[in-house]
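Input sequence (155 aa), recorded before submission:
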Amino acid sequence: SEQDKKEIKIDIPIDAYIPSNYISDSSTRILIYQECSSCSTINEISDMRNSLVDRFGSFPKPVKALLLIMEIKVLGQELNISHLNLNEKENFFSFSFYGDDNEVKQYIEKILSLSKQQFEISYGKPIQMKTVFQSGTLFQKAYQIRDIFFSLINN
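Predicted structure, token format:
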């Protein structure tokens, strides 16, 4: 249920925020941040995106990044991911899960059976999955993460 959704730590080094030249009023900006953080489904984020365009016009890259990170967060929670890290220098991203080792092994088996992506698994504490990106900018890599998660959930 919604209440059971655990916090997910996301390390993706892109600037994700609402610039003052997009929404100049600071109390409105704070309100929008609050609305953003209360989004718990992809549909809610999609509504948020449409609402922002309706109210403030097409948005700049940092807002696009904010919505993308929100999508990754919602999808990651759905996949029971506890921590996600995009390592730009070494061109990979890794993630670990909530749950005991048996649960985690089940998640991993599911992901391996569904994904076309090649994953490397390290059985440390926590157990981590890691995959290398084909190529692209940081932004494109963040989109790849979202798409991989999306395909895992919708299978």
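Checked by second reader. The radius of gyration is 16 Å.
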